[in-house]
Each structure stands twice: as C-alpha cells, then as structure tokens.
Amino acid sequence: MEELVGKLWHTWITKAAGNTYPEAVVTLAEVEKTAGILFRAFGGDPGLKVAAAVAETHGARRRWVQRLAGSGEKVSLAKRDAETLRLPPEIAAFPDRPLNRDLYLWLAVLAASDETPLRPWIVRNQLATRAALRDYPGLRPRYERLVAAHLAERPAPAGMAPDEAAQEKAIRQALMEPGSVPGLPPLSSRKSRPPQPVLLWLMEAPARASGKVTDPGQELPPEGGGSPETDKEAYKAEQVEAPDNRSPMLMMFRAESLPTWAEYVRVNRAYDEDPDPNARDAAKDLEQLSLMRDGQTSASRVKFDLDLPSAAEDDAPVGPGIPLPEWDYRKAQLLAGHCRLQPMIARNTGTAPLPEALAATARRLRGQFAALAPQRRWLKGQPDGTELDVDACVRNVADRASGHTPEPGTYLAQARCERDLACLLLADLSMSTDAWISDSHRVVDVIRDSLLLFAEALSATGDRFGIYGFSSLRRQNIRFHLLKDFAARYDPAARARILALKPGYYTRMGAALRQSARILAEQPAGRRLLLLISDGKPNDLDLYDSRYGIEDTRMAVFEARRQGLMPFCVTIDREAGAYLPYIFGPAGFCVIRKPEDLPRRLPLLYAQLTRQ
Q1: From CA 222, how far away is CA 217, in angstroms rounded?
Q2: Is residue 575 in a domain?
Q3: Stated pTM of the model
Q4: Which among 161, 184, 189 is positioned nearest to 174, based on CA atoms?
Q5: Could you count the other beta carbons within 10 Å of the beta carbon of residue 275?
Q6: Residue 531: strand pairing partners
Q7: Mean pLDDT taken over the chain
Q8: What backbone torsions phi and psi does residue 420 show, to the nearest 5 degrees?
Q9: Count of the separate structural domains present in the chain
Q10: Is residue 412 domain-shared with residue 432, that is, in the same domain?
Q11: Does residue 214 sit within a domain?
Q12: Pick from 148, 48, 158: which is nearest to 103 by CA?
C-alpha cells in the first residue's frame, strides 16, 4: 500500500511541478534531418553533425512545487561546438506542437547565424538573432510568436529581487529588440540566482577550470548499439587526474575526504572485457562524469601487441613504405609526409578454387556480365571493307539518277567495341568487420564473398580492375593489402589472397583513398571508378576518430575527383546518412541495409555505375 501511494504521489507531484506540455512534445528524432538541412542551407558548417544536447544544472530559482518534487534542476539547451550542433532531445515548452517544432528550426537557424562565439552570452545571441532576421526576414513572424510564447512562460520581474529583476528585464528586452542590450546587469548579492534559461538562445559556453578540459559532448555508447546520434544519451564530462592510491600518506586522511560516486568511478573501458552492469545507472545519477587516465598503460599496450601478428604470420611488406599527406582541417593545411602507408601482400597462400557456396551465383553473374564484354559490330558507309554496304550502293544509284553527287563509302567493316573502363575496389578490413551479422557470417566474410563475386563478374567483361584492402594503427602504420593489381590476371593465386583476408586495427580512410587514387590515375582508361567498401566512418586511435578523420577523408575524395576519378562508397553502416553525404556527396554513396545482400548487389551496382 505504501509503495502504491508513493508512486501515485510521485506521479502527481512530478506532473504538477513540470513546466512542460507532454501532449505537445516534439522529439529531436522527428526533426533531425530537417534541422540539419536548414542549418546547412542557411550557411552553417556542413561538417557539423546534429546530436542531442546535455541536460545541465541551470542554477536559477525554482518554484516551491518544483523544489518539493525535486525536479526542474536541469535543462537541455542548444549549443554549437567545433564538431557538433547539439539540440534538446525533446521540446515540450509550449502547449502548441507546431510551436515546439518551430523552436527546433529557429535554433538551427540561430546556430547557422552565430559568428561571434567569443562574445558575452547575451551579446552573442542578440547578434546571431539580428543577423538571422536581417538575412531571412521571412522568419520574423515565426520568431515573434516564439518570443511571445516564451515570455508568457518566464517568471514576471515584479516578484523578484532588484538585481534578479534587472537581469530578467534585460533578457526580455534583448528577446523583443535584439541588439538593444549591451550586457547583462551584474548580481549584487551572493544569495542572488542566475536568470531562467532562455530557450530561444544558444547555451553559454562553460568556463574552463584550471587543469580541466570540460567537454559536454562526451557520450556513453547506447545499449544495443546502432542507434542514431539523436538517440544517444549525452553526459557532461571533464578530464581530471587520477588519485594516487599508491602513496603511503593515504593512511593519514579524514573520513569525510573519502571519494564518493559523485567524485570518482573507475571505469577502464579501454581494456576491460566485462562491462559493469551498474555503470549506466550510476552515470545517470552523476552531475558530471570525470574521465581520467590512471597510468595503467601496460594493459592497453599488451592488448595492442597481442593484436599485432608475428612477423612470420603477418603479410609480407612490399618496399619501405610510402609517405602520404594528411589534411588538417583546423589549420586548413595539407600536412606533407604526415602518414606512412605500407603496401603488403599475403605470403604462402598458394592457390584456391572458388568456394562451392558461391559457384552458382558466380556462374549467373558471369553470364550476365558477358553481355557487357567487348563485341564486334558492323560499321556502314566505310571507304573500304570486306563486304558491300547494300543500302549505301542503292542510295548512290538513286543519287546519280537524280543528278546528285553520291556519298563516298559503299563498304561494311567490322570494328571491336572496347569498354574503356578501369575500376579499383578498396575494402575496409578494420577490426569492426569482425562483427557477426548472423549465426554463420561476419562482416568480413560478406566482404570476402563480395570481392570474389566482383572479380568473377569483371573477368567476364574484360574490364581492367584491381582489388586492395586497408587497415591502420595510427598514422605511421597504415596497412595497404595487395589482393590483385591491374597488371596481374585474376587467377587462383589472387583468389587465395582474398580468401586469406583477416580483420584488424582501425580505419584511416584518407591515406588509403589517396594511394588508391594514385594507382588508379595511372591506368590508361577514359572512365576510372574508385569503389570503396566500408562498414563505418573513418577512425583511428588518435584524433582521427573525430571530425578530423571525416574532413581528411572528404579532402581525399575531392582530390580523387580533381584527378578525373569517380569515387563511390558502398557501406553497410546504418548511420552512414549522418556523414557520408558530407564526404562523398548525395549521389556518391550507397547504403546496403542488409549486409548479407552485399555480395549479390555489388556487381550489379558496378554495372549501373559503368553503364554507357
């Protein structure tokens, strides 16, 4: 009975204390694509992704019913940083659902117009608002409706302390007349509280404490995996130093100085095998996550060393390695010789037949692609040839009889129709391809079958093609596997090298694309296709696992197009829509929803891309 009463009380008091309208809620997942398109169309940085914002403590005064219910302490506000446009995970601030949706769109436009991030918070948002209304005057009626609705929900200045009322009046004036308030009046008392959050503005950037790097963008991975960015829970985090537990002076302490859950939770996700089942629940209760390196680097080093095969078992390196540049978008500079790519070839693989499971599909594809093979055709009206062109002869007799000069050429000649094509197929062989997609197949198995069927199909057409794979372990160890080069035939030895593929390491995509473009550009063909197969976005152990990697890959694609190549990405990553349009363009990629369909669809996709 007590539990039932407690639940009823909690439900009632939470609903009474809530200053929202759940029946009119709009979630970020509903407007994510629209907000992203609007942000970029209005001049926002196209490299930014849209993700959920962090709920943070605002510190403003709460109503007595909110204090009684213990709610209303945190709020999710929009924010823009170097890599992400963060919007509230849901908005239910107004009773009108279209108005809540308009707030999402307004925040996207405001973020696109925000060009002064280093100015004070109130000045920065006024300048961005004024710029948005100046450049896009059609937004003014919508903005005025949002301001009127938001001011109706804000507390009246009449019931506040003088200094808090002055700040509230300044905010109201800034909302109604953007650019008219030079700054926020200071608070005169320690008991004074900051103003209520302004839902129509971008959040103020948090001050960085000495020795700490605050990043509200840190996220915990979602349960189950594969969720979009907007479905992930975001947490505010900071980088701190680990406590020294080995000091003998730790015996001299006060009991109240013991670390609590809110201060230190040891979670070594870099090399722990078994996740803590209570870690997520504990994280939800924390005000701020503290991330640290505790100095135990030996375990992580051992794991990476175990991932490295011995020299006797590893593929054989070809040559001393190739220095390659890398694009640093922060400096807007191509760093010459920043990476080292090592060509490799599998050793002692021998020869291998086509797997029996692929034989029937390979026969069908060879029959379909044989129609694309070069064939001879008759050319009419030639000056010489092996046979007379009857139509041309009849036409010449008629021309002479009518007094006209006959056209030259009365013979038929045969000509061979060549397909002036070259294709380089580049496969992602990172450790993520070791994931299982069914009870019997991993991603790398699907990629391996796709390469085999692709090679079988192209062998029937006579098109020149090469097949390579890549993985990486930081910028000085980019592995570039030679499976079949353009000069060699597709034979049982090449088939054995494909069957010997093993996943490992990470995906430094930019360097692999540059080397592939260099190889493909040397091929004497009128059309040259660079086909990439991947299962995820660019990443590596260093800063490449961020916007840095996406920007470098995008620049590599741009360089390939500048050489006259046609880059195209085939991916099985369901979240590819968040980054591949930015890297390859809207028509430069294809998402395979079912990975097991990749072997069958890849050759057909090639036929579509190379159709005359």
Answers
A1: 14
A2: yes
A3: 0.71
A4: 184
A5: 12
A6: 425, 568
A7: 80
A8: -85, 70
A9: 4
A10: no
A11: no
A12: 148
